[in-house]
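Batch manifest, entry 17 of 40.
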Amino acid sequence: MSVLDREILALMRDVAERIIMPRHQALKATEIIEKADDDLVTIADREAEVALAEGLAKLHPEAAIVGEESVHADPSVMDRLSGTCWIIDPIDGTSNFANGTGHFGIMVALAEEGFAKGGWIYDPQRDRFCAAHRGQGARIDGETVTARASGANPPRLAAMTKFMTPQQRRRFELEIVPNYTLVHAPGAACEQYPLTVLGEHDVAIYERTLPWDHAAGSLFLNEAGGACLRLDGTPYRVDDGRRGMVGAANRDLFDQLVVRLSAAGYQPAA
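Output type: structure tokens
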């Protein structure tokens, strides 16, 4: 584990232990706010983002900070994504956290010129730490990990269909689902990406691809030898604002799903 990995793990653990886990299954109704339909934020999200931002700024003072909650407060913060920046999701899977069930975690990425160069995912319930650096592979708890398919026939597909338009959902259900074993999407990218790397899920389709949800995870999957790309095969940029992406345990699984999506006339929403 690199020095930077150790520093970020220590920061994530500290924030989880002090701010996040004491609120798990103990939130008051007044500590949960609905930012938009089916989009929650809690007091733990807000406090954790502040603490993470302060800690990351000490590790790389020249990098701007782009946090999910800071963007909600001031959308112009997104303009920082094209430079060198830390990208923070203080609690990925906030709905799961607020409900007291399911998976959630902390996600952090370091990006330069629109591309993630480092990504870290921390699961405080398992004390599991995923780390990836561009061109240097992916690791879980310091051990190198290689993405593997489940071997299931048909392959296992996860999809966050709630972010699809009604037309997209109809095409997906009629043309795509019959070719796969549809598996439960965990409602948290911090869990979905490891599931794809570890051979539990073969492929996942994402419609909404916000940088705090996908910068770290897409790098982790690609560095593990999987394939996480836009539907046209181009790399994920944190600053382009596009929608639609597929993450797969290998390139063959990626290509198979993309071909089927294209044949079905499935397109990301504008």
